C-alpha cells in the first residue's frame, strides 16, 4: 500500500513539474495545482496510514493523528487562494501582452516574425 501511494505521489509530482516547465500559462497553472495536490497527499501520508482507527478520541482503540488532517485542510484553502491569484496574473499578462506565453513573448518561429520585428513589437529598441 505504501509503495503504491509513494508511486502515485511521485507520478503526480513529475506531471506537475513537467507542466510547470511549459511555456504557456494554462499548463503552468495546471502544473501548480497538481504539485499542490501531490504535496497535500504527501503531508497526509506523513501522519501514517491508519486502518480501523477513529479520527477523534472516542473511548478505547487506536486514534489517527489529527495534525496532518488539519495541515492538509489548511493547505487546501491556501492552495485555492494561490491558484486564483495565479489565474488572475495569467489573465492580466494575456490582456497586456496579447500572449499566453509565461514571459509575454511569443517565440519568433511561432509568430513568423524576425527576432528584430519581435523585439520592436514588444517595445524594445534595436542597437
Number of helices: 5
Give the DSSP E fraction (strand runs of 2 or more residues).
Answer: under 5%
Helix and strand pattern: HHHHH
In round numbers, the mean pLDDT is 83
User: Structural class of the secondary structure composition?
Assistant: mainly alpha
The total strand number stands at 0
Residue share in helix: 55-70%
Which descriptor suits the 3D outline?
A: elongated
Radius of gyration: 22 Å
Name the poorly predicted regions. Answer: none
User: Distance between termini?
Assistant: 62 Å
| Main beta sheet | none
Describe the 3D structure:
The protein is an all-alpha fold and 127 residues long. It contains five helices and no strands. The longest helix has 32 residues. The mean pLDDT is 83.
Which structural traits does this protein have?
single chain, 127 residues, mainly alpha, 66% helix, 0% strand
Summarize the entry for a quick read.
This protein has 127 residues and is mainly alpha-helical. Helices cover 66% and strands 0% of the residues.
Amino acid at each position: 500500500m505504501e509503495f503504491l501511494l509513494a508511486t502515485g505521489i511521485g507520478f503526480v509530482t513529475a506531471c506537475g513539474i513537467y507542466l510547470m516547465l511549459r511555456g504557456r500559462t494554462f499548463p503552468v497553472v495546471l502544473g501548480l495545482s497538481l504539485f499542490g495536490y501531490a504535496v497535500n497527499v504527501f503531508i497526509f501520508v506523513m501522519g501514517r496510514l491508519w486502518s480501523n482507527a477513529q479520527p477523534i478520541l472516542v473511548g478505547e482503540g487506536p486514534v489517527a493523528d489529527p495534525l496532518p488532517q488539519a495541515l492538509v485542510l489548511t493547505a487546501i484553502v491556501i492552495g485555492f487562494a494561490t491558484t486564483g491569484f495565479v489565474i488572475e496574473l495569467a489573465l492580466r499578462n494575456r490582456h497586456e501582452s496579447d500572449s499566453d506565453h509565461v514571459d509575454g513573448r511569443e517565440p519568433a518561429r511561432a509568430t513568423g516574425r524576425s527576432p528584430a520585428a519581435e523585439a520592436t513589437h514588444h517595445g524594445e529598441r534595436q542597437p
